[in-house]
């Protein structure tokens, strides 16, 4: 029986409001506990989705039929009107997720800004954005938050270093193969554990390597064949809203086939020192626009 770490990213106001409750229901039906990473500040994601008017991104928009994948509400967020603050208006949804027994982590203060500007931000700005997000999320939940996940897997060694000040149990900032301890630059030792996402997402695969109709079979095969530690990411906007039926069918089939799911934190061994060391390096990635952080070994 294969255990898969299930990560749910909530990127937008609408996805959080509509997709989260629906996913909570679907997961409860199968008694599944997952990790939810919430964006908590202003939702400017519409800008992100329109900004990338480059051929590769347009191809992706067409391939995945972005307006049907996300809906117009999401595509226009933060473009024609100021982005709505997520945690201050949807706190009840976040608290409900915690009450259902899921692990809660910080995704972002402003998902759009992080994804777009992180490369150019000085250390202080990265720290300020993390602090804004964490304060807002902890205030909303009334509890300490112990994990985080960078938007769009946009993270590098600099982000690893800045996140040390958060003193969290783990982060899920990159793509890769298996949990590891990133080594800080300048001989400063190992940082908090990273749990990389090792499996493709719906929008990375559909239209590129598989059709939507065959996606569920494709992803179950990927779960079974994953060489490393299987970690799968879904989005409240997609699996909780526009592709909720498809995801419900996937959960049924996964249950029949004996796959089980757990929050990411449950994948960690009791002795974290047994995990390999590594680094996060910037890399291009199949099915994604621009760079993201990828797990890498240590230079020899
Ligand atoms: Zn995200």
Tags for this model:
single chain; about 300 residues; alpha/beta; TIM Barrel; five-stranded parallel beta sheet; three-stranded parallel beta sheet; 11 strands; about 40% helix; binds zinc ion
Strand-residue proportion:
15-25%
Q: Determine the mean pLDDT.
A: 91
List cofactors, ions and other ligands: zinc ion
> How many helices does DSSP assign?
13
The major β-sheet equals: 5 strands, parallel
- Name the CATH architecture: Alpha-Beta Barrel
Query: What oligomeric state do the depicted chains represent?
Result: single chain
CATH class: Alpha Beta
SSE layout:
Elements (H helix, E strand, L loop, with lengths): L2 E8 L2 H17 L5 E5 L5 H7 L3 H10 L1 H5 L1 H4 L10 H14 L3 E6 L2 H7 L5 H19 L5 E2 L8 H7 L6 E2 L9 E2 L10 E2 L7 H4 L9 H11 L5 E5 L2 H5 L1 H14 L2 E3 L14 E8 L6 E6 L4
Parallel strand pairs: 1-2, 1-8, 1-9, 2-3, 4-5, 5-7, 6-10
Antiparallel strand pairs: 10-11
The structure holds zinc ion.
Could you characterize what this model shows?
This protein has 300 residues and is an alpha/beta fold. It has a single domain, classed as Glycoside hydrolase/deacetylase (TIM Barrel), CATH 3.20.20.370. Helix content is 41%, strand content 16%. Strands 1, 2, 3, 8 and 9 form a five-stranded parallel sheet that branches. A three-stranded parallel sheet has the order 4-5-7, with no helix packed on it. Strand 10 and strand 11 (291-296) form a beta hairpin. The longest helix is centred in the middle third of the chain and has 19 residues, at 123-141. It starts with a strand and ends with a strand. Zinc ion (ZN) binds next to loops.
């Amino acid at each position: 029986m294969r255990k898969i770490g299930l990560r749910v990213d909530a990127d937008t106001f609408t996805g959080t409001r509509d997709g989260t409750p629906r996913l909570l229901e679907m997961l409860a039906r199968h008694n599944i506990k997952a990790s939810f990473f919430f964006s908590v500040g202003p939702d400017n994601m519409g800008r992100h989705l329109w900004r990338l008017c480059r051929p590769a991104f347009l191809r992706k928009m067409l391939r995945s039929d972005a307006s049907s994948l996300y809906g117009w509400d999401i595509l226009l967020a933060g473009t024609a009107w100021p982005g709505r603050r997520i945690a201050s208006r949807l706190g009840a949804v976040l608290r409900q997720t915690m009450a259902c027994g899921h692990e809660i982590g910080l995704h972002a203060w402003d998902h759009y800004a992080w994804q777009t500007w992180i490369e150019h931000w000085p250390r202080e700005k990265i720290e300020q954005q993390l602090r804004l997000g964490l304060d807002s999320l902890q205030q909303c939940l009334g509890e300490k938050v112990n994990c985080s996940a960078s938007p769009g897997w946009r993270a590098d060694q600099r982000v690893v270093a800045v996140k040390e000040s958060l003193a969290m149990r783990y982060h899920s900032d990159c793509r890769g193969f298996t949990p590891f301890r990133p080594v800080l630059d300048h001989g400063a030792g190992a940082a908090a554990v990273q749990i990389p996402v090792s499996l493709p997402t719906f929008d990375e695969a559909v239209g590129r390597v598989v059709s939507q109709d065959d996606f569920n079979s494709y992803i179950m095969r990927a779960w079974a064949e994953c060489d490393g530690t299987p970690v799968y990411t879904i989005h409240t906007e997609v699996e909780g809203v526009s592709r909720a039926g498809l995801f419900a069918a996937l959960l049924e089939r996964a249950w029949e086939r004996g796959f089980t799911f757990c929050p990411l934190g449950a994948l960690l061994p009791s002795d974290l020192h047994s995990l390999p060391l590594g680094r996060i390096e910037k890399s291009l990635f199949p099915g994604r626009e621009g760079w993201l952080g990828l797990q890498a070994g240590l230079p020899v």
